[in-house]
Amino acid sequence: MKNVIILGASGNIATQVIEIMVKQDDIHLTLFLRNTRRPPM
């Protein structure tokens, strides 16, 4: 299992990367947002 941390997870590029990574079975995602009230797009 691979651990991946995405900083600025609500950004445009991060949103696209998250969509790809979520489909992977062997990846554990940790998302960091500056403003927790703004969900990832």
Account of the 3D structure:
- It contains 1 helix and 2 strands; from the N terminus they run βαβ.
- It has 41 residues and is of the alpha+beta class.
- It has a two-stranded parallel ribbon.
- The longest helix has 11 residues, at 12-22.
- The protein starts with a strand and ends in a 9-residue tail after the last strand.
Summarize the structure.
The chain is an alpha+beta fold. It is built from one helix and two strands, in the order βαβ.
The class by helix and strand makeup works out as alpha+beta
Query: Percent of residues in helical segments?
Result: 25-40%
Q: Order of strands across the widest beta sheet? A: 1-2
Q: Uncertain spans, ≥5 residues at pLDDT below 50?
A: none
The largest sheet, given as strand count, sense and whether it forms a barrel, is:
2 strands, parallel
Count of helices? 1
The succession of helices and strands, N to C, reads EHE
Dominant shape:
globular
N-to-C CA distance:
25 Å
According to DSSP, the number of beta strands is: 2
Give the radius of gyration: 10 Å
Strand content: 25-35%
Mean pLDDT: 88
Would you spell out the secondary-structure blueprint of this structure?
Elements: E1 2-7, H1 12-22, E2 27-32
Parallel strand pairs: 1-2
Give a quick set of tags describing it.
two-stranded parallel sheet; 2 strands; 41 residues; single chain; alpha+beta
